[in-house]
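Hi R.,

Quick one: here's the L-carnitine dehydratase/bile acid-inducible protein F sequence you asked about.
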Amino acid sequence: MSSAGPLSGVNVVDLTAVVAGPYCTQIMADMGADVVKVEPPQGDNARYISVGPEPGLSGVFTNVNRGKRSAVLDLQTDEGKRALRALVGQADVFIHSMRAAAIAKLGFDYQTVAALNPSIVYTNCYGYGRTGPYAARPAYDDTIQAECGLAAVQEELTGTAGYVGSIMADKVCGLSALNATMMALFHRARTGEGQEVEVPMFETMAAFMLVEHANGAMFDPPLGPALYPRTVARNRRPYPTLDGHIAVLIYNDKQWHAFIDAVKPAWASDRYATMAGRAADIDTVYGLVGDTLREQTTADWLALFDKLGIPASPLRTTDELFTDAHLEAVGFFETVQTAHGPVRFPGVPTGFSRTPGRVRGGAPRLGEHTAEVLAEVGIAPPD
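And here's the predicted structure, written out as tokens:
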């Protein structure tokens, strides 16, 4: 088994900021890539958005920039641009999160970068595809959640339009950028050809939302609205019990009949004996199950569902994840010694039998590696 990781030897020049792009390159770093985070003199805004051990090292920034090197380059100056061109010339991947016009204005659009390094994989991460009418718009997670239908789906579910309690659009787009970049690297490994990759947030989240919600609207003529009824049923929620809540999905017919045979609720009916029958009136079904689950404690129900082979779980807070017995047993968290003391990082969730990933270090201070990075391409650091 190698400790180098599957991306060992891959050099990444990272001009992304905040979360979406940095999450993509964080995983690259975990997998062994050398990621150079190029920052402006003021640094990535994410450095300052939450608590941290010192100013400029917020918890959010620390997590998505672990294991990277930070180089400060002022791309408004000729010196900064010269240094970035030198870095690009030795890179396998160039990734940025600026709008197309902004990166082109700096002189680092794909055509210019590919002229310096024809085999480079060049990944764009921005709000909207550049061939559409929204191309020039700025975008953030909240605006994309609203625009892709996520906030409206929440309204269908809860009665109130709202965001989900996570920066879902940023993280989904970060994972999509990683997938796309890896596929382009795979193509290059087979052919030697570099290429440009585009990962627009709106299109990515539209595709994500429409996996299930395209539903009847896909057909001509439409067979129904663009909604998957089960996911927006008002009674789809963690169910109250005698002493708390439980999450359970009694999904297929085998599970359903096991539940009915064990509990024998008064409302049991042949009408709900098949998946098709339940799907046709899913909100009522969830309501009936919810009424029944109020009758016993969470522990009682968990024991029964475990015996019946029906997926169920208690509600956990994000704080409780840090002490979860399963995550502890599999070694999910990785403690890394940093200049500020130990940091307990959420680790690499995927396993590789030969080249596993790992957290390769803490997050860098702003410009911590500027001199080192520039020396590697033969440039003296600025005064």
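Residues 168-191 form the longest helix (24 residues).

Cheers,
M.
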